Amino acid sequence: MARPRGSVNRRATRERILAVAERAFAKGGFHGTLLHEVAAESGMRAPSLLYHFESKEDLFDEVVRRAYRRIEPPLLSALASADSPRELLASVLEAISSFEAEHRDLLGVLNAEVLGSGRHGLGAVRDTMLPLVERIESAVRDASGARMPADVPLRQALLHVIVMHAVRANLGEIAPEILGSVDEERALAAALLELVVSWPERGPSPHAA
Question: Are 89 and 78 in contact, with CB atoms under 8 Å apart?
């Protein structure tokens, strides 16, 4: 059954708005982006834009979701290309680095908004990034086999690595001065992963009855 033409047109309009909004947010940040300017560049008036997105917060959230949806395919490809936990983590960081290089300005704004005081887009990051982290965690556990106890804080370790990588991306050219080289970052990430892979299994609590 053919898709109703109105539905196709609405989807195309939303995509056009999102493409414009993505460039605007990447250039001006959340507060520096004006809805009426996004609407004008999208070929409409602000009330028409608000028909598709209820507010600037709603529009920014969808830009965040769109960005993280685009990073999913290269991440999943990275997970499929490696076998050991160390190789998996290296492949994931490489995929993230490649994506950052292509979308540096946008990701800098997204990271700054989410990690800053405004907290804009936080819910969208939770809904899109955490499922990806769960996929990475599952792949690392599978690659580790029986060596990894179920209560190992692997997700926390992965999030530490990913968040620090995001901070590096935001620092730009001064990152090596503050955080060291990329090679040092990856060596530290690998060491952290090795630590959690060999995490000791908890025995019975000494206070257990």
Answer: no
